[in-house]
## 1
Amino acid sequence: MTAQPGGTAHRTDVRDTRYGEIFLIRSEEGQLIGAVYNTTGLNDCPLDKWRALNPQELTTQFGVVAVQLNGPRFWTMDRITANAVGEVVSFGGLEARWVAELPIPPDLSDPDHPGARYYRDMVIKRETEFHFAAGRPVYEMLTPDGKTYVMQAYSHIVDDSLTMQSLAALGGQLQIPEGWQYRARTPGQELTLATAGGQAHVLQDELQNTYMQLVTP
Protein backbone atom coordinates (compact mmCIF):
# COMPACT_ATOMS: atom_id res chain seq x y z
CA MET A 1 0.00 0.00 0.00
CA THR A 2 1.21 3.48 -0.86
CA ALA A 3 -0.41 6.87 -0.43
CA GLN A 4 0.07 9.86 -2.67
CA PRO A 5 0.51 13.08 -0.68
CA GLY A 6 -2.34 15.43 -1.32
CA GLY A 7 -2.94 17.83 1.52
CA THR A 8 -1.57 20.08 4.22
CA ALA A 9 -2.01 19.72 7.99
CA HIS A 10 -1.32 22.20 10.78
CA ARG A 11 -1.15 21.22 14.45
CA THR A 12 -0.66 23.57 17.38
CA ASP A 13 0.07 22.95 21.07
CA VAL A 14 1.68 19.59 20.32
CA ARG A 15 4.53 19.82 22.85
CA ASP A 16 4.50 16.67 25.00
CA THR A 17 1.52 15.13 23.18
CA ARG A 18 1.64 11.37 22.66
CA TYR A 19 1.52 9.74 19.24
CA GLY A 20 2.39 6.50 17.52
CA GLU A 21 3.57 5.52 14.06
CA ILE A 22 2.99 2.40 12.01
CA PHE A 23 5.46 1.57 9.24
CA LEU A 24 4.07 -0.50 6.36
CA ILE A 25 7.26 -1.88 4.84
CA ARG A 26 7.36 -2.89 1.18
CA SER A 27 10.11 -3.90 -1.23
CA GLU A 28 10.77 -1.97 -4.42
CA GLU A 29 13.55 -3.32 -6.64
CA GLY A 30 15.32 -4.76 -3.63
CA GLN A 31 14.99 -1.60 -1.52
CA LEU A 32 12.87 -1.75 1.62
CA ILE A 33 10.68 1.33 2.04
CA GLY A 34 8.45 2.13 4.99
CA ALA A 35 5.22 4.07 4.43
CA VAL A 36 4.87 6.02 7.68
CA TYR A 37 1.41 6.47 9.20
CA ASN A 38 1.12 8.84 12.19
CA THR A 39 -1.72 9.23 14.70
CA THR A 40 -1.17 12.97 15.37
CA GLY A 41 -4.35 14.99 14.96
CA LEU A 42 -6.52 11.88 14.89
CA ASN A 43 -6.10 10.54 18.43
CA ASP A 44 -3.62 10.53 21.31
CA CYS A 45 -2.46 6.96 20.59
CA PRO A 46 -4.53 5.28 23.37
CA LEU A 47 -2.30 2.70 25.03
CA ASP A 48 -4.92 -0.05 24.99
CA LYS A 49 -5.34 0.21 21.23
CA TRP A 50 -1.61 0.63 20.66
CA ARG A 51 -0.69 -2.43 22.73
CA ALA A 52 -3.35 -4.48 20.97
CA LEU A 53 -1.69 -3.99 17.56
CA ASN A 54 -0.14 -7.18 16.19
CA PRO A 55 2.54 -6.56 13.54
CA GLN A 56 2.24 -10.07 12.11
CA GLU A 57 -1.51 -9.74 11.66
CA LEU A 58 -1.12 -6.29 10.11
CA THR A 59 1.54 -7.62 7.72
CA THR A 60 -0.94 -10.17 6.41
CA GLN A 61 -3.83 -7.71 6.35
CA PHE A 62 -2.01 -5.09 4.30
CA GLY A 63 0.00 -7.49 2.14
CA VAL A 64 3.38 -5.96 2.93
CA VAL A 65 6.81 -7.38 3.71
CA ALA A 66 6.66 -6.34 7.37
CA VAL A 67 5.06 -3.92 9.81
CA GLN A 68 6.98 -2.00 12.45
CA LEU A 69 5.40 -0.16 15.37
CA ASN A 70 7.18 3.05 16.32
CA GLY A 71 5.92 4.39 19.62
CA PRO A 72 4.55 5.60 21.84
CA ARG A 73 6.38 8.88 21.28
CA PHE A 74 5.97 12.46 22.49
CA TRP A 75 6.57 15.59 20.43
CA THR A 76 9.05 18.15 21.77
CA MET A 77 8.11 21.08 19.51
CA ASP A 78 5.14 23.45 19.78
CA ARG A 79 3.69 23.56 16.25
CA ILE A 80 3.80 21.33 13.19
CA THR A 81 3.09 22.07 9.55
CA ALA A 82 3.01 19.07 7.22
CA ASN A 83 2.86 20.14 3.59
CA ALA A 84 2.21 16.69 2.13
CA VAL A 85 -0.09 14.26 3.90
CA GLY A 86 -2.16 11.39 2.58
CA GLU A 87 -4.80 8.84 3.39
CA VAL A 88 -6.11 7.92 6.83
CA VAL A 89 -6.05 4.20 7.59
CA SER A 90 -7.50 2.27 10.52
CA PHE A 91 -5.10 -0.17 12.13
CA GLY A 92 -7.17 -2.35 14.43
CA GLY A 93 -9.39 0.63 15.21
CA LEU A 94 -6.45 3.02 15.65
CA GLU A 95 -6.50 5.69 12.95
CA ALA A 96 -3.25 7.02 11.48
CA ARG A 97 -2.44 9.24 8.52
CA TRP A 98 0.26 8.79 5.85
CA VAL A 99 2.98 11.38 6.43
CA ALA A 100 6.31 10.13 5.04
CA GLU A 101 8.37 7.50 3.25
CA LEU A 102 11.42 5.95 4.89
CA PRO A 103 14.05 4.14 2.78
CA ILE A 104 15.45 1.47 5.12
CA PRO A 105 19.20 0.75 4.89
CA PRO A 106 19.95 -2.97 4.35
CA ASP A 107 21.79 -3.38 7.66
CA LEU A 108 19.28 -1.55 9.84
CA SER A 109 17.54 -4.72 11.01
CA ASP A 110 20.68 -6.87 11.16
CA PRO A 111 20.30 -8.94 14.38
CA ASP A 112 24.08 -9.14 14.70
CA HIS A 113 24.34 -5.35 14.94
CA PRO A 114 21.36 -4.20 17.05
CA GLY A 115 22.90 -0.78 17.62
CA ALA A 116 23.45 -0.01 13.94
CA ARG A 117 20.62 2.53 13.92
CA TYR A 118 21.88 4.69 16.77
CA TYR A 119 23.72 8.00 16.21
CA ARG A 120 23.44 7.38 12.49
CA ASP A 121 22.14 9.89 9.98
CA MET A 122 19.21 8.59 7.94
CA VAL A 123 17.07 10.30 5.30
CA ILE A 124 13.28 10.33 5.51
CA LYS A 125 11.14 11.69 2.69
CA ARG A 126 8.60 14.19 4.01
CA GLU A 127 7.68 17.87 3.80
CA THR A 128 7.39 19.33 7.29
CA GLU A 129 8.17 22.33 9.45
CA PHE A 130 8.61 21.92 13.20
CA HIS A 131 8.35 25.12 15.23
CA PHE A 132 9.84 25.53 18.72
CA ALA A 133 8.50 28.60 20.54
CA ALA A 134 10.89 31.21 21.91
CA GLY A 135 11.60 30.84 25.60
CA ARG A 136 10.90 27.09 25.68
CA PRO A 137 13.64 24.45 25.96
CA VAL A 138 15.09 22.46 23.09
CA TYR A 139 17.36 19.43 23.31
CA GLU A 140 20.18 18.97 20.84
CA MET A 141 22.83 16.52 19.73
CA LEU A 142 26.01 18.18 18.43
CA THR A 143 28.37 16.20 16.20
CA PRO A 144 32.15 16.59 15.88
CA ASP A 145 31.79 17.86 12.30
CA GLY A 146 29.61 20.79 13.36
CA LYS A 147 26.10 19.46 12.70
CA THR A 148 23.24 20.15 15.09
CA TYR A 149 20.36 17.71 15.46
CA VAL A 150 17.35 18.94 17.45
CA MET A 151 15.18 16.44 19.31
CA GLN A 152 11.79 16.19 17.63
CA ALA A 153 10.38 13.48 19.89
CA TYR A 154 11.23 11.48 22.97
CA SER A 155 10.27 7.85 23.17
CA HIS A 156 8.76 5.31 25.55
CA ILE A 157 9.88 2.40 23.38
CA VAL A 158 12.93 1.64 25.55
CA ASP A 159 12.40 3.69 28.73
CA ASP A 160 8.83 4.58 29.62
CA SER A 161 9.97 6.66 32.59
CA LEU A 162 11.19 9.48 30.34
CA THR A 163 9.32 12.76 30.71
CA MET A 164 9.69 16.20 29.20
CA GLN A 165 11.10 17.38 32.52
CA SER A 166 13.78 14.65 32.57
CA LEU A 167 15.21 15.55 29.14
CA ALA A 168 17.44 18.32 30.52
CA ALA A 169 19.57 15.68 32.26
CA LEU A 170 19.29 13.02 29.54
CA GLY A 171 22.91 13.40 28.46
CA GLY A 172 24.02 11.62 31.63
CA GLN A 173 22.03 8.50 30.64
CA LEU A 174 23.27 8.20 27.08
CA GLN A 175 26.36 6.46 25.72
CA ILE A 176 27.18 9.33 23.38
CA PRO A 177 29.92 8.69 20.80
CA GLU A 178 33.28 10.28 21.44
CA GLY A 179 33.34 13.90 20.35
CA TRP A 180 29.55 14.27 20.41
CA GLN A 181 27.66 16.50 22.85
CA TYR A 182 24.11 16.50 24.21
CA ARG A 183 22.84 19.98 25.04
CA ALA A 184 19.70 21.52 26.52
CA ARG A 185 19.14 25.22 25.84
CA THR A 186 16.36 27.81 25.67
CA PRO A 187 16.38 29.86 22.44
CA GLY A 188 15.47 33.52 22.66
CA GLN A 189 13.56 33.36 19.36
CA GLU A 190 11.48 30.77 17.58
CA LEU A 191 13.44 27.86 16.15
CA THR A 192 12.22 26.17 12.96
CA LEU A 193 13.26 22.74 11.72
CA ALA A 194 12.32 22.51 8.05
CA THR A 195 12.92 19.81 5.48
CA ALA A 196 14.94 20.68 2.39
CA GLY A 197 13.94 19.30 -0.98
CA GLY A 198 11.42 16.98 0.64
CA GLN A 199 14.02 15.31 2.84
CA ALA A 200 14.84 15.32 6.54
CA HIS A 201 18.07 14.02 8.03
CA VAL A 202 17.33 12.27 11.32
CA LEU A 203 19.10 10.15 13.89
CA GLN A 204 18.24 8.31 17.10
CA ASP A 205 20.01 7.72 20.39
CA GLU A 206 19.93 4.32 22.07
CA LEU A 207 16.66 5.16 23.86
CA GLN A 208 15.15 5.75 20.40
CA ASN A 209 14.60 9.45 20.97
CA THR A 210 14.64 11.08 17.52
CA TYR A 211 16.55 14.19 16.40
CA MET A 212 16.36 16.11 13.11
CA GLN A 213 19.25 18.01 11.58
CA LEU A 214 18.98 21.79 11.80
CA VAL A 215 19.74 23.28 8.40
CA THR A 216 20.18 27.02 8.30
CA PRO A 217 19.58 28.96 5.05
## 2
Amino acid sequence: MILQNIVDAAVLVAAGFLAAAQPNPPRHSHAGAQDEALRLIAKGQLTEARKLVADLIENANQTELTPDSQAELWRLLALAENRLGRYDKAEAALKRGVQLCGPSEQPELMIALLVDLADVHLHQGALDEANRLLSRARSIASKHLHVGHPQTAFIQHSLGVLFWVRGELSKAEQAFRLALTIHENSLGGDHIDIAVAASSLAGLLARTGRQPEAIPLLERSKTIFERHLGSGHPYTIGATFALGTALTTSAPAKAELMLREAIANWRVSQPESHPHMIKFLGALASSRFAQGDYREAEILSGQALQMSKEIFGPEHPHAIAEMYNHAQLLKDSRRGKEAAALKKEADRIRTVRGYVESGRHQVDILALR
Protein backbone atom coordinates (compact mmCIF):
# COMPACT_ATOMS: atom_id res chain seq x y z
CA MET A 1 0.00 0.00 0.00
CA ILE A 2 1.29 3.49 -0.83
CA LEU A 3 1.92 5.34 2.45
CA GLN A 4 2.89 8.78 1.19
CA ASN A 5 -0.48 10.38 1.80
CA ILE A 6 -0.28 9.25 5.42
CA VAL A 7 3.21 10.69 5.82
CA ASP A 8 2.01 13.97 4.36
CA ALA A 9 -0.82 13.98 6.88
CA ALA A 10 1.62 13.75 9.78
CA VAL A 11 3.10 17.20 9.34
CA LEU A 12 -0.22 18.77 8.44
CA VAL A 13 -1.82 17.38 11.57
CA ALA A 14 1.13 18.49 13.68
CA ALA A 15 1.06 21.88 12.01
CA GLY A 16 -2.66 22.11 12.69
CA PHE A 17 -2.01 21.67 16.40
CA LEU A 18 0.53 24.49 16.34
CA ALA A 19 -1.39 26.77 14.00
CA ALA A 20 -3.77 27.84 16.74
CA ALA A 21 -1.10 28.82 19.24
CA GLN A 22 -2.12 29.77 22.75
CA PRO A 23 -3.36 33.37 22.96
CA ASN A 24 -1.24 35.98 24.63
CA PRO A 25 -1.55 36.13 28.43
CA PRO A 26 -4.80 37.94 29.28
CA ARG A 27 -4.44 41.48 30.56
CA HIS A 28 -8.07 42.38 31.32
CA SER A 29 -10.41 41.82 34.23
CA HIS A 30 -11.72 38.57 32.77
CA ALA A 31 -8.30 36.92 32.91
CA GLY A 32 -9.59 34.19 35.21
CA ALA A 33 -12.42 33.27 32.84
CA GLN A 34 -10.05 33.28 29.89
CA ASP A 35 -7.66 30.99 31.75
CA GLU A 36 -10.58 28.68 32.46
CA ALA A 37 -11.45 28.62 28.75
CA LEU A 38 -7.86 27.66 27.93
CA ARG A 39 -8.03 24.89 30.53
CA LEU A 40 -11.24 23.54 28.98
CA ILE A 41 -9.69 23.60 25.52
CA ALA A 42 -6.64 21.71 26.77
CA LYS A 43 -8.95 19.07 28.28
CA GLY A 44 -10.88 18.73 25.02
CA GLN A 45 -14.06 20.24 26.45
CA LEU A 46 -14.36 22.45 23.43
CA THR A 47 -18.10 23.10 23.43
CA GLU A 48 -17.93 24.35 27.03
CA ALA A 49 -14.94 26.53 26.22
CA ARG A 50 -16.68 27.98 23.20
CA LYS A 51 -19.76 28.86 25.25
CA LEU A 52 -17.67 30.49 27.97
CA VAL A 53 -15.77 32.67 25.51
CA ALA A 54 -18.94 33.53 23.59
CA ASP A 55 -20.50 34.78 26.86
CA LEU A 56 -17.42 36.92 27.53
CA ILE A 57 -17.67 38.40 24.05
CA GLU A 58 -21.39 39.09 24.43
CA ASN A 59 -20.74 40.98 27.67
CA ALA A 60 -17.66 42.81 26.35
CA ASN A 61 -19.39 46.17 25.93
CA GLN A 62 -20.94 46.08 29.39
CA THR A 63 -17.58 45.25 31.00
CA GLU A 64 -15.82 47.98 28.99
CA LEU A 65 -13.21 45.73 27.43
CA THR A 66 -10.81 47.48 25.08
CA PRO A 67 -10.94 46.52 21.38
CA ASP A 68 -7.61 44.70 21.70
CA SER A 69 -8.89 42.68 24.66
CA GLN A 70 -11.99 41.81 22.64
CA ALA A 71 -9.72 40.76 19.76
CA GLU A 72 -7.94 38.37 22.15
CA LEU A 73 -11.30 36.83 23.03
CA TRP A 74 -12.22 36.37 19.38
CA ARG A 75 -8.87 34.65 18.85
CA LEU A 76 -9.58 32.36 21.78
CA LEU A 77 -13.00 31.53 20.33
CA ALA A 78 -11.31 30.71 17.03
CA LEU A 79 -8.94 28.37 18.86
CA ALA A 80 -11.88 26.34 20.16
CA GLU A 81 -13.58 26.32 16.76
CA ASN A 82 -10.34 25.28 15.06
CA ARG A 83 -9.85 22.39 17.47
CA LEU A 84 -13.39 21.26 16.61
CA GLY A 85 -12.55 21.33 12.91
CA ARG A 86 -15.11 24.13 12.38
CA TYR A 87 -12.77 26.13 10.18
CA ASP A 88 -15.48 28.40 8.78
CA LYS A 89 -16.45 29.48 12.30
CA ALA A 90 -12.79 29.93 13.23
CA GLU A 91 -12.31 32.09 10.15
CA ALA A 92 -15.24 34.34 11.06
CA ALA A 93 -13.96 34.79 14.63
CA LEU A 94 -10.45 35.63 13.51
CA LYS A 95 -11.70 38.16 10.96
CA ARG A 96 -13.61 39.89 13.73
CA GLY A 97 -10.47 39.92 15.84
CA VAL A 98 -8.50 41.49 13.00
CA GLN A 99 -11.13 44.21 12.66
CA LEU A 100 -10.79 45.07 16.35
CA CYS A 101 -7.02 44.93 16.67
CA GLY A 102 -4.72 47.89 16.09
CA PRO A 103 -1.56 46.78 14.26
CA SER A 104 0.45 49.73 15.53
CA GLU A 105 -0.64 49.41 19.16
CA GLN A 106 -0.59 45.60 19.30
CA PRO A 107 1.59 44.32 16.43
CA GLU A 108 2.23 40.93 18.06
CA LEU A 109 -1.48 40.28 18.55
CA MET A 110 -2.27 41.38 15.00
CA ILE A 111 0.44 39.09 13.62
CA ALA A 112 -0.91 36.21 15.70
CA LEU A 113 -4.43 36.81 14.38
CA LEU A 114 -3.23 36.98 10.77
CA VAL A 115 -1.12 33.84 11.11
CA ASP A 116 -4.01 31.94 12.70
CA LEU A 117 -6.32 33.15 9.94
CA ALA A 118 -3.83 32.07 7.29
CA ASP A 119 -3.65 28.63 8.89
CA VAL A 120 -7.44 28.32 8.80
CA HIS A 121 -7.38 29.15 5.09
CA LEU A 122 -4.69 26.50 4.60
CA HIS A 123 -7.00 23.95 6.21
CA GLN A 124 -9.67 24.95 3.70
CA GLY A 125 -7.34 24.90 0.69
CA ALA A 126 -7.45 28.68 0.09
CA LEU A 127 -3.73 28.99 -0.60
CA ASP A 128 -3.73 32.41 -2.26
CA GLU A 129 -5.60 33.99 0.64
CA ALA A 130 -3.27 32.32 3.14
CA ASN A 131 -0.29 33.70 1.26
CA ARG A 132 -1.81 37.21 1.25
CA LEU A 133 -2.37 37.11 5.01
CA LEU A 134 1.15 35.88 5.71
CA SER A 135 2.58 38.62 3.50
CA ARG A 136 0.63 41.16 5.54
CA ALA A 137 1.94 39.62 8.78
CA ARG A 138 5.51 39.80 7.48
CA SER A 139 5.04 43.45 6.56
CA ILE A 140 3.82 44.30 10.09
CA ALA A 141 6.70 42.35 11.61
CA SER A 142 9.27 44.19 9.50
CA LYS A 143 7.91 47.54 10.71
CA HIS A 144 7.40 46.80 14.40
CA LEU A 145 9.57 43.83 15.44
CA HIS A 146 13.30 43.28 15.46
CA VAL A 147 14.97 40.65 13.29
CA GLY A 148 14.72 37.25 14.93
CA HIS A 149 11.77 38.20 17.15
CA PRO A 150 9.99 35.02 18.34
CA GLN A 151 6.77 36.09 16.62
CA THR A 152 8.50 35.90 13.24
CA ALA A 153 9.08 32.20 13.82
CA PHE A 154 5.32 31.60 13.71
CA ILE A 155 5.13 33.40 10.37
CA GLN A 156 7.92 31.22 9.02
CA HIS A 157 6.21 28.10 10.29
CA SER A 158 2.97 28.92 8.51
CA LEU A 159 4.90 29.77 5.36
CA GLY A 160 6.45 26.33 5.63
CA VAL A 161 3.02 24.74 5.73
CA LEU A 162 1.93 26.85 2.74
CA PHE A 163 4.96 25.76 0.73
CA TRP A 164 4.36 22.17 1.83
CA VAL A 165 0.80 22.16 0.50
CA ARG A 166 1.99 23.75 -2.74
CA GLY A 167 4.57 20.99 -3.14
CA GLU A 168 7.47 23.44 -2.86
CA LEU A 169 9.33 21.27 -0.40
CA SER A 170 12.73 22.94 -0.57
CA LYS A 171 11.15 26.27 0.39
CA ALA A 172 9.13 24.54 3.10
CA GLU A 173 12.28 23.04 4.60
CA GLN A 174 14.02 26.42 4.61
CA ALA A 175 11.04 28.04 6.35
CA PHE A 176 10.77 25.31 8.97
CA ARG A 177 14.51 25.39 9.68
CA LEU A 178 14.41 29.18 10.05
CA ALA A 179 11.46 28.94 12.46
CA LEU A 180 13.34 26.35 14.52
CA THR A 181 16.52 28.46 14.55
CA ILE A 182 14.67 31.60 15.68
CA HIS A 183 13.04 29.69 18.51
CA GLU A 184 16.28 28.04 19.61
CA ASN A 185 18.12 31.36 19.64
CA SER A 186 15.45 33.15 21.66
CA LEU A 187 14.01 30.42 23.86
CA GLY A 188 16.72 27.87 24.62
CA GLY A 189 16.52 24.13 24.05
CA ASP A 190 13.53 22.88 26.05
CA HIS A 191 10.61 25.11 25.06
CA ILE A 192 7.26 24.03 23.65
CA ASP A 193 7.60 26.24 20.57
CA ILE A 194 10.93 24.56 19.75
CA ALA A 195 9.26 21.17 19.98
CA VAL A 196 6.52 22.23 17.58
CA ALA A 197 8.96 23.66 15.04
CA ALA A 198 11.06 20.49 15.24
CA SER A 199 7.94 18.37 14.67
CA SER A 200 7.06 20.19 11.47
CA LEU A 201 10.61 19.99 10.13
CA ALA A 202 10.66 16.29 10.97
CA GLY A 203 7.42 15.73 9.09
CA LEU A 204 8.93 17.32 6.01
CA LEU A 205 12.08 15.21 6.29
CA ALA A 206 9.93 12.09 6.54
CA ARG A 207 8.00 13.20 3.45
CA THR A 208 11.24 13.25 1.45
CA GLY A 209 12.40 9.85 2.63
CA ARG A 210 14.77 11.17 5.30
CA GLN A 211 13.34 9.26 8.23
CA PRO A 212 16.72 8.81 10.00
CA GLU A 213 16.88 12.62 10.29
CA ALA A 214 13.20 12.97 11.18
CA ILE A 215 12.89 10.39 13.96
CA PRO A 216 15.29 12.04 16.49
CA LEU A 217 13.51 15.38 16.01
CA LEU A 218 10.14 13.77 16.68
CA GLU A 219 11.43 11.93 19.72
CA ARG A 220 12.81 15.22 21.05
CA SER A 221 9.48 16.95 20.44
CA LYS A 222 7.45 14.19 22.07
CA THR A 223 9.68 14.29 25.16
CA ILE A 224 9.34 18.06 25.54
CA PHE A 225 5.59 17.99 25.06
CA GLU A 226 5.10 15.19 27.58
CA ARG A 227 7.29 16.96 30.14
CA HIS A 228 5.48 20.28 29.87
CA LEU A 229 1.96 19.35 28.82
CA GLY A 230 1.33 15.68 29.58
CA SER A 231 0.51 12.75 27.31
CA GLY A 232 -3.06 13.85 26.60
CA HIS A 233 -2.32 17.30 25.21
CA PRO A 234 -2.97 17.73 21.46
CA TYR A 235 0.66 18.76 20.86
CA THR A 236 1.93 15.53 22.46
CA ILE A 237 -0.61 13.49 20.56
CA GLY A 238 0.43 15.17 17.31
CA ALA A 239 4.10 14.37 17.90
CA THR A 240 3.24 10.79 18.85
CA PHE A 241 1.22 10.41 15.66
CA ALA A 242 3.97 11.89 13.51
CA LEU A 243 6.56 9.62 15.11
CA GLY A 244 4.36 6.62 14.42
CA THR A 245 4.02 7.50 10.75
CA ALA A 246 7.77 8.06 10.43
CA LEU A 247 8.40 4.58 11.84
CA THR A 248 5.80 2.79 9.72
CA THR A 249 8.23 1.39 7.17
CA SER A 250 11.36 0.80 9.28
CA ALA A 251 9.71 -0.36 12.51
CA PRO A 252 6.02 -1.14 11.89
CA ALA A 253 5.44 -2.75 15.29
CA LYS A 254 6.81 0.28 17.16
CA ALA A 255 4.92 2.54 14.78
CA GLU A 256 1.70 0.78 15.66
CA LEU A 257 2.33 1.31 19.37
CA MET A 258 2.80 5.04 18.76
CA LEU A 259 -0.32 5.30 16.61
CA ARG A 260 -2.49 3.39 19.07
CA GLU A 261 -1.13 5.58 21.86
CA ALA A 262 -2.07 8.70 19.89
CA ILE A 263 -5.58 7.43 19.21
CA ALA A 264 -6.16 6.31 22.81
CA ASN A 265 -4.95 9.61 24.27
CA TRP A 266 -6.99 11.62 21.78
CA ARG A 267 -10.18 9.74 22.61
CA VAL A 268 -9.66 10.36 26.33
CA SER A 269 -8.52 13.97 26.33
CA GLN A 270 -10.22 15.27 23.18
CA PRO A 271 -13.56 13.46 23.22
CA GLU A 272 -15.38 15.47 20.57
CA SER A 273 -15.36 14.37 16.95
CA HIS A 274 -12.56 15.98 14.98
CA PRO A 275 -10.97 15.61 11.51
CA HIS A 276 -7.62 14.65 13.04
CA MET A 277 -9.07 11.29 14.07
CA ILE A 278 -9.61 10.53 10.40
CA LYS A 279 -5.87 10.81 9.80
CA PHE A 280 -5.09 8.78 12.92
CA LEU A 281 -7.30 5.92 11.78
CA GLY A 282 -5.86 6.06 8.26
CA ALA A 283 -2.31 5.89 9.59
CA LEU A 284 -3.12 2.92 11.82
CA ALA A 285 -4.77 1.21 8.86
CA SER A 286 -1.55 1.75 6.93
CA SER A 287 0.48 0.23 9.76
CA ARG A 288 -1.76 -2.83 10.00
CA PHE A 289 -1.56 -3.28 6.23
CA ALA A 290 2.25 -3.13 6.35
CA GLN A 291 2.18 -5.97 8.87
CA GLY A 292 -0.11 -8.11 6.73
CA ASP A 293 -3.33 -7.59 8.70
CA TYR A 294 -5.46 -6.62 5.71
CA ARG A 295 -8.74 -7.24 7.51
CA GLU A 296 -8.18 -4.74 10.34
CA ALA A 297 -6.61 -2.31 7.89
CA GLU A 298 -9.81 -2.40 5.88
CA ILE A 299 -11.96 -1.87 8.98
CA LEU A 300 -9.89 1.10 10.15
CA SER A 301 -9.83 2.65 6.70
CA GLY A 302 -13.59 2.21 6.45
CA GLN A 303 -14.02 3.95 9.80
CA ALA A 304 -11.91 6.87 8.56
CA LEU A 305 -14.06 7.12 5.45
CA GLN A 306 -17.32 7.03 7.41
CA MET A 307 -16.09 9.63 9.89
CA SER A 308 -15.05 11.91 7.04
CA LYS A 309 -18.52 11.69 5.53
CA GLU A 310 -20.15 12.43 8.89
CA ILE A 311 -17.95 15.41 9.69
CA PHE A 312 -17.65 17.04 6.27
CA GLY A 313 -20.54 15.59 4.29
CA PRO A 314 -20.59 12.71 1.77
CA GLU A 315 -19.52 14.85 -1.19
CA HIS A 316 -16.95 17.11 0.49
CA PRO A 317 -13.41 17.03 -1.00
CA HIS A 318 -12.05 15.51 2.24
CA ALA A 319 -14.59 12.70 2.03
CA ILE A 320 -13.69 12.14 -1.62
CA ALA A 321 -10.02 11.92 -0.66
CA GLU A 322 -10.85 9.21 1.88
CA MET A 323 -12.82 7.35 -0.77
CA TYR A 324 -9.70 7.27 -2.93
CA ASN A 325 -7.59 6.16 0.05
CA HIS A 326 -9.99 3.33 0.86
CA ALA A 327 -10.20 2.32 -2.79
CA GLN A 328 -6.39 2.11 -2.93
CA LEU A 329 -6.35 -0.13 0.13
CA LEU A 330 -8.99 -2.39 -1.38
CA LYS A 331 -6.98 -2.57 -4.60
CA ASP A 332 -3.78 -3.41 -2.73
CA SER A 333 -5.73 -6.11 -0.85
CA ARG A 334 -6.65 -7.63 -4.23
CA ARG A 335 -10.29 -6.67 -4.01
CA GLY A 336 -10.24 -5.05 -7.40
CA LYS A 337 -13.97 -4.96 -8.15
CA GLU A 338 -14.86 -3.18 -4.93
CA ALA A 339 -11.93 -0.80 -5.36
CA ALA A 340 -12.95 0.03 -8.93
CA ALA A 341 -16.57 0.68 -7.91
CA LEU A 342 -15.55 3.01 -5.08
CA LYS A 343 -13.07 4.87 -7.26
CA LYS A 344 -15.69 5.23 -9.98
CA GLU A 345 -18.11 6.80 -7.50
CA ALA A 346 -15.41 9.15 -6.22
CA ASP A 347 -14.56 10.13 -9.82
CA ARG A 348 -18.23 10.80 -10.52
CA ILE A 349 -18.67 13.09 -7.50
CA ARG A 350 -15.42 14.90 -8.23
CA THR A 351 -16.47 15.52 -11.83
CA VAL A 352 -19.99 16.67 -10.94
CA ARG A 353 -18.72 18.97 -8.19
CA GLY A 354 -15.87 20.30 -10.28
CA TYR A 355 -13.15 19.35 -7.82
CA VAL A 356 -9.60 19.59 -9.12
CA GLU A 357 -7.80 16.27 -9.36
CA SER A 358 -5.49 15.64 -6.40
CA GLY A 359 -1.72 15.57 -6.88
CA ARG A 360 -1.70 18.47 -9.32
CA HIS A 361 1.09 20.39 -7.55
CA GLN A 362 4.64 19.86 -8.72
CA VAL A 363 6.97 18.59 -6.01
CA ASP A 364 10.50 19.92 -6.15
CA ILE A 365 11.95 16.99 -4.24
CA LEU A 366 15.14 16.94 -6.32
CA ALA A 367 16.04 20.37 -4.95
CA LEU A 368 16.48 18.76 -1.54
CA ARG A 369 19.03 16.19 -2.68
